[in-house]
Amino acid sequence: MNIALLGEDVLRQTAQAVEDFSDAGLAAFIAKLKQAMLAAGGIGIAAPQVFDPRAVMIIASKANERYPDAPDMLPVVMINPTIISCSPEMEKGWEGCLSVPKLRGLVPRHRQVTFSYQDEQGTEHCLTWQGFLARIFQHEYDHLTGKVWLDRVESMADVIAEEVYFSRLQANR
């Protein structure tokens, strides 16, 4: 699967709700989406990032080369996610994106988010995440609403080359 890059129209469109959970093509697509995310070293991915208009995203936080401090969790497939509430407290944190390669940005996000989603069988779930997992959720959810992290940075001074980000990370260890 090819990753859509900044400037591709699909990254600026609102994703379409999934209605048919019995479609065998949905399960096959989700398997390929997971594979694309892992192959690229991502900790989350949304369908529009692979040129698919459906409201599907996967979050799979795991320490890797791109995110050495990420907490480990099993992948969670989220279909038709909806934000229920967000904490008023905001936190800035560094983000990267498979669709915005070679850059990192200091992005303000809600510290906590409560959301609902459907799993691959269409069963509805509700979760509350905070900290880094809330950040990943909001980042991937943005892809379903036609936004990228660059839309959220407060200043271009908060955007740096990924190479600089990693050298700073190494220096601080």
From TrEMBL:
Keyword line: Hydrolase, Iron, Metal-binding, Protein biosynthesis
Enzyme class, UniProt record, top EC level: hydrolase
Amino-acid positions noted as binding Fe cation in the UniProt annotation, renumbered to this chain: 97, 139, 143
Catalytic activity: N-terminal N-formyl-L-methionyl-[peptide] + H2O = N-terminal L-methionyl-[peptide] + formate
GO molecular function: metal ion binding; peptide deformylase activity
Presence of the UniProt keyword Metal-binding in the record: yes
Co-factor remark: Binds 1 Fe(2+) ion.
Cofactor or coenzyme needed: Fe(2+)
Single GO biological process annotation from the record: translation
Gene3D superfamilies: Peptide deformylase (3.90.45.10)
EC number: 3.5.1.88
Positions of the catalytic residues: 140
UniProt cross-references to SUPFAM superfamilies, sorted A to Z: Peptide deformylase
Family: Belongs to the polypeptide deformylase family.
Purpose of the protein: Removes the formyl group from the N-terminal Met of newly synthesized proteins. Requires at least a dipeptide for an efficient rate of reaction. N-terminal L-methionine is a prerequisite for activity but the enzyme has broad specificity at other positions.
Record NCBIfam families: pept_deformyl, PRK00150.1-3
Protein name: Peptide deformylase
Organism taxonomic ancestry: Bacteria, Pseudomonadati, Pseudomonadota, Gammaproteobacteria, Alteromonadales
Gene field: def
